[in-house]
């Protein structure tokens, strides 16, 4: 099972002395006890505590819940938030597992930051570095009157406000954290992703982790809290949030939305540097907000991001979209992320590392979007100039390639399963024309001639792989035609069985065997 790392950054400065620090200790104990009551969460979650006052220290290293020791928290001194952010980065880089070979990486860390005042050290650069590197999904809590919400938004868009430092308020915050962690750990998707949803005023409205039921409407709950002093509608809500009027989102009554995609990446970067590629899913009315977030995440004005929009696609709410990124000579970790489409802005984010020793020049990448049935529905090529000295450039726009024609190659015994997959995908891509008559085509005398007409004209070649497909001479001729006419990137593998059980052709898997593994995992039955 993949591990979900959770980091708690806790302000233990002098202003937290007395009742507040005792409430934090009580809330932390209850958080650990509650998480230990869930066997799945115990197996999936590892927890670390970082405290900061006059300096920052990792009170508990990333540890599984079963053996997690309760730290002895004491409050004194100033508020070294900058040191805490720097230490967090070091801990994540040291403790969070990355993919290597067939070894899966950990989920992207979930980070809760709580502070009751303003930092007393140099924190701005550390905050910017953490935000740009996106090492984890951060939820910040501004606790009490002295805490600065706007300052915390320099670190993350996801900021909640506690009105006071009373014991019940702070303990309630930790209960909300434990419920959120537990729900996040039960997600069954193959990539870590927490999406943050905003209302029209730009305030955080809810957050959710992929397909897990991990959501909370801050605005509506705050209004209920303001009116009644409590809210019985959800166990995952933070206590004493600031009051505001609930906002109604567009398209709430519709189960199908016209979804647009936008890909943002830097035009250039030097060797040895890391950068972020973001893929956004949104409604047309949300485009301006998405572009604002892109600019906010990349404040440098000398190298504006390259933005590539495309759409719309008709997508049912509740659909999982698997987004994959590959980049020539560069390291992407993790290579696949998930967007759960629920009618609000969704984001898949990739960290890309450029090796120090690399030949400078233009490097080519590819973003592909897959329906949860495994089939590719959209793709966009990327280019990055790797150069020691970045050259300022204006942003350009390149569209996501909307797949309209596809060729399905499969063995006759697999026909029913193949048709089921394609019919499912056409619910979200009704304009997709899939050539399924390959079995009938094979019976004709001029089959190979027609093959070279039909396949190169397609936008994508779906190769449904199984033991029967591996044994089929017709399937082999078809994928070889696709490979020779359009190249390996043209072929989208759809393994019907584990590629470790039925190995794909060497010509198609030598460089990208992990693509086949990920494609299979998208449709792997639960519990396998």
Describe the structure.
- It is a single chain.
- This protein is of the alpha/beta class and 528 residues long.
- Helix content is 28%, strand content 29%.
- It contains 15 helices and 23 strands.
- The protein has helices spanning 19-36, 39-44, 81-95, 124-133, 149-152, 167-185, 218-228, 287-297, 415-425, 438-441, 447-454, 467-471, 473-486, 506-509, 513-522; strands spanning 4-11, 45-52, 56-64, 110-115, 137-143, 159-162, 194-198, 204-209, 256-265, 268-269, 274-282, 306-316, 319-327, 331-333, 336-341, 346-353, 361-371, 376-386, 401-402, 405-409, 433-435, 460-465, 491-495.
- A 6-stranded mixed sheet has the order 3-2-1-4-5-6, sandwiched between helices.
- The protein starts with a strand and ends in a 6-residue tail after the last helix.
Tally of DSSP helical segments: 15
Q: Count every beta strand, where a strand is a DSSP E run of 2 or more residues.
A: 23
Based on helices, strands and strand pairing, what is the structural class? alpha/beta
Strand content: 25-35%
Q: Give the low-pLDDT segments.
A: 188-254, 392-399
Determine Rg (CA atoms, Å): 25 Å
The biggest sheet, with number of strands, parallel, antiparallel or mixed sense and barrel status, is:
6 strands, mixed
Strand order across the largest sheet: 3-2-1-4-5-6
- Bulk shape: elongated
Terminal Cα separation, in Å?
Answer: 11 Å
Percent in helix: 25-40%
The average pLDDT is: 76
